Model the fold of this input.
Amino acid sequence: MIKYGELSTKKGNINFFINTLYRNIQNKLKKFNTKIYKDISRMYIEFDDKDLDNILKKINTIFGIHEYVVAYKINTDIELIKKTILQILNNEDFDTFKVETKRSDKTFPIPSLEFSKQIGGLILKNIDHSKVDVHNPHLLINIEIRHEYTYIYLNHYKGLGGYPNGTLGHGMLMLSGGIDSPVSGYLALKRGMILDAVYFEAIPHTSIEARNKVIALTKKLVNYTNKIELHIIPFTDIQESIYKNIDPAYCITIMRRMMYRIMEKLAKMKKAQVIVNGESIGQVASQTLTSMNVINNVTNFPVIRPVACLDKLEIIDIAKKIDTYDISILPYEDCCTIFVPKHPIINPNLNDAVKFEESFDYNSLIDEAIKNRIVMDIKEEDEDNKFKDLL
Ligand code: ATP
Ligand code: MG
Done:
């Protein structure tokens, strides 16, 4: 039984949010035998007991679920309720407990409080060392009595939170093989976006393993959405031109300006509304506020930087939680690290950057790079087989 939480604040278009969540859940659980019902405050998923663990694993990857419980659904029958509660509690390790009954079916003959007391008495009698604690119970036993069915559940579990995937637009994620950008992608997905990802590679200066690492990261991210289109941009000619023509101190600044130009074009092609990346203020020379200013100056397109204000350790915590960390720390170099100059400028000047760029015809190189990109559709179904051998 799923509770929506933050979604219920979306008054005007609550139905759109709920319907999208419903479709996302259906999609994630399509391998299982389920029945899914929804109303304005809850969603119910019925499934076979044997699938419980696997279904919970999936539920824990779906944004828009704030809280859920695992409820036992039985016919509304007093003897059956009693028997089921004792059965459930036989598998639980607890000392203090409290019973809470909600009776939405007023034809049920026993008032809620009275029924809670009766069930409490039954538990005290049948389960050794159990004690009632109404203020701070170890175990809260919830009984929701409806006309036909009764739901019994114990603990509440926290869901992933956020908004349902697909309710809040479309972002283009700059995905490198590092720690920060997959975390940024995850946080953007959490806000309800769908994503395409873009990876700049400079073969032969970067390896095919570096590319595979990005594919593996995309695979991890796709667990939290439906599909990610990964665009692999051949960036070698642009990078070589930069390093041939431009003062080494400005190479990273100019390289990143080129990336932003390509991102804007791709975002417009894909009708995305924002660029998303893993820049974090102060982390490296290209991420001082002055650098970000000079780099961002090539586009008016909105750029969202979900980890801009997080410490590296905070970013790493999320990377571990979403299982991207171990992939990100694999050693293959990416196009940002291979040509790093000894002294990249930390306070670049916009006019200087523009002047340096006049030394080569970057527009045709950009168009060429976009034309020659490789596009891969990465879907969750591929999980078990297609990319197994990549790492
Ligand atoms: P990350 O850990 O994600 O690699 P970083 O700390 O290494 O980030 P930079 O290399 O300066 O930082 O890059 C900042 C951001 O620019 C990255 O988080 C990513 O969003 C984007 N970026 C950098 N290199 C690439 C690349 N080769 N392809 C796509 N995006 C990139
Ligand atoms: Mg990087």
